[in-house]
Structures are given as structure tokens and as C-alpha cells.
Design a protein that fits this description.
It is a single chain. The chain is of the alpha/beta class. It folds into 2 domains: about 200 residues, Spore Coat Polysaccharide Biosynthesis Protein SpsA, Chain A, CATH 3.90.550.10; about 80 residues, no CATH class. The longest helix is centred in the C-terminal third of the chain and has 17 residues.
């Protein structure tokens, strides 16, 4: 039996211990086919000692030759490979052993372009399992809810679609923030997203380089609203983004944060993030405290 070849792209920056764990998890996959990992170092020296010619589990070490940041690093890895299928893994996440094997089987059965799995969110000593429903993976639902369960470290996609109708990662997104959300929206536009309905990736929260880059978050939200007309066509979706934007402004102690709260309420009066942002803007609670409480439940703001 001929098994599709799989390329794994791991973008990394100054997290050598976590990267080693991610690489170990890829090596230990039960998938019988060839898996090649492209480790792309972004804005930091490349560790070429990680390279390996091990049979069916090669590791190739690269430097980011595209725009600095996560989006460019992912594209550097994608374009370096030739595998039939492409997977992403964040350098602070770990796959469970059966991930690729079960995803390849699902792609073969479903003929979908993309397949995701569930995740186990780790935050401190808390663990929360989150598995997307099939209905979560439609374009309408992704726009409305964001669906954190469709995490980039769970994605496996056909290379022909990635380099074709879906497209590469958008390098114009400010700070690469939310590049995974932008990409999964385009994947849903291109065709059905299949799923393996069990958690197959351990996702560490609290390690993100983006979680408190408030101005980058604001700029990226504005970019996404302008790029995807579906947001403005759905008041609940737009309200969610406005609410996140208002929260970021409040965390920055921006003078316009209460106006941002008011705009959110006008668009979506039931959007909870508006009222959370108002509490931060009025100094009733800190943004850090609210982030911590959300992360403990396996959620974001």
C-alpha cells in the first residue's frame, strides 16, 4: 500500500525545550508513511543540529526566507516541501501518537481538502478537552464563533489545495496575529473541512507570543474585518470582533475604549465581551485577571 507523504511545518523562535518535545511527538507518530518535518527558525539563529535523515522521519532545518513572523515562517516551510499532505504544529504543542494516521484515513474516506481534530488545552495545572462539532466547521459557523477547537496544530491539508484554491498563509496580517483564523476561513470557503472527533493535540496556553500584544491584536482585527465581508454581514460575528477589539483597547488603557464598548453594544447588545471590556476600562478588574480566568476554562477572550 502506498501511503501519502506528509510534510510537517513547525515555525519556532527561541523555545528550544518545547521544540524538542514537539519534534519527539512527530517522530513517534504511528503513521506508517513518510513524514518530513521542516523546522523554520524565525528571527533567531537556526539550530542545524536538529536536522536528521532518519528513515521516514526526516527533519530539515530552515531559516525564514519570507516576511518576518509566523505567517512568513509557515510559508517558508510549506514551499520547501513536496509532500502530498501538509500539517502545521506550533512549537509549544504536542501531537498524540495516532494523529496523522487517523487524519490521513479520514481524508481518504471523506475526500475533504482539510481535516482537523480535537485538542486538550493545558493551562497551568488545568486541562480542558475541546472537540469541534461537524457543524462548527462550516464557513458560517467559523465566522460567527471562531471555533478555537479548529486549532492550527490540528490541521492536515492536501498540498494541491494549500497551494491552490485555499492559498498560503497571509503575510500581510499585522504581526501575523490570527493568521490561522484567516486561513481556516479560506479553507472553509474552498470546501468541506473534515474532522477526527477526538482530542489528538495537547495545546499549551499561556505560551503564546500574541496573547498580550494589544495594539497588534487591534490592527489585525481591523485588517480581518476589512478583508472578509462575511463579518460585516453577520452582526453577532462583527460584535464578537468589536468586543475583542474593545477589550484590547481597555487593556491598553486607551482613551477610546469606552467608545469601542458602546459601538460593540450598538452592533450586538448581547455580546458579553463588551461588558467585560467596560469593566476593564473602568478599572473594576484587570485584563490579566480576566485572561487567567478564561484560560483556566480552556477559553480565550
Amino acid at each position: 500500500m502506498i501511503h501519502p507523504t506528509v510534510d510537517v511545518v513547525i515555525a519556532t523562535r527561541n523555545r528550544p525545550e518545547l521544540l524538542q518535545l514537539a519534534l519527539k511527538a512527530v517522530r513517534e507518530q504511528t503513521y506508517p508513511g513518510q513524514v518530513t518535518t521542516y523546522v523554520v527558525f524565525d528571527r533567531c539563529p537556526a539550530d542545524h543540529a536538529l536536522a536528521s535523515d532518519a528513515a521516514d522521519r526526516r527533519v530539515v532545518v530552515l531559516e525564514n526566507t519570507h516576511s518576518p513572523g509566523l505567517a512568513g515562517a509557515r510559508n517558508s516551510g510549506i514551499l520547501a516541501g513536496l509532500g502530498d499532505l501538509v500539517a502545521f504544529c506550533d512549537d509549544d504543542d504536542c501531537w498524540l501518537p495516532d494523529k496523522i494516521r487517523l487524519q490521513v484515513r479520514e481524508l481518504e474516506v471523506s475526500n475533504a481538502l482539510t481535516v482537523v481534530t480535537g485538542i486538550i488545552v493545558e493551562y497551568g495545572d488545568h486541562e480542558t478537552a475541546r472537540v469541534p462539532l461537524e457543524t462548527d466547521l462550516t464557513l458560517e459557523r467559523l465566522i460567527r464563533k471562531r471555533v478555537m477547537e479548529a486549532h492550527p496544530s490540528t490541521v492536515l491539508v492536501r498540498r494541491t489545495a494549500l497551494e491552490g484554491e485555499i492559498g498560503l498563509v497571509d503575510e500581510d496580517i499585522p504581526g501575523s496575529y490570527g493568521e490561522d483564523f484567516d486561513w481556516i476561513i479560506r479553507a472553509a470557503r474552498a470546501g468541506r473541512i473534515a474532522r477526527v472527533p477526538i482530542p489528538l493535540v495537547r495545546v499549551r496556553w499561556g505560551q503564546s507570543m500574541f496573547s498580550r500584544q494589544w495594539q497588534t491584536i487591534i490592527d489585525a482585527i481591523d485588517y480581518g474585518i476589512a478583508k472578509h465581508p462575511e463579518f460585516s454581514a453577520d452582526p453577532a460575528a462583527l460584535g464578537r470582533l468589536y468586543g475583542r477589539r474593545a477589550f484590547a483597547m481597555a487593556a491598553l488603557s486607551s482613551r477610546g475604549s469606552l467608545r469601542a464598548v458602546a459601538r460593540t453594544i450598538r452592533v450586538a447588545p448581547l455580546e458579553k465581551r463588551a461588558y467585560v471590556a467596560a469593566a476593564v476600562a473602568l478599572h473594576l478588574v484587570s485584563a490579566e485577571r480576566l485572561l487567567d480566568l478564561a484560560h483556566r476554562r480552556g477559553h480565550g477572550i
